[in-house]
Design a protein that fits this description.
Layout lengths: L1 E3 L5 E3 L1 H14 L2 H27 L1
Antiparallel strand pairs: 1-2
């Protein structure tokens, strides 16, 4: 289930992330799971940095 935050950004319930990670552990090799996690973390960092830069301007 997706929901919108105050800025209108879509997100999902944290429990859904845990469920997806559990399913991935059963299906995907560790190297692929690590790659997916790194990409997701990097994307979140970029979004936060962009928000901080626009907020500082």
């Amino acid at each position: 289930m997706l929901r919108k935050d105050r800025a209108g950004k879509l997100s999902y319930h944290p429990m859904l992330g845990e469920l997806a990670e559990g399913a991935a552990k059963r299906v995907l090799p560790a190297e692929i799971r690590l790659s997916i996690r790194q990409v997701a973390l990097h994307s979140n960092e970029e979004e936060q940095n962009a928000g901080n830069e626009s907020g500082a301007a």
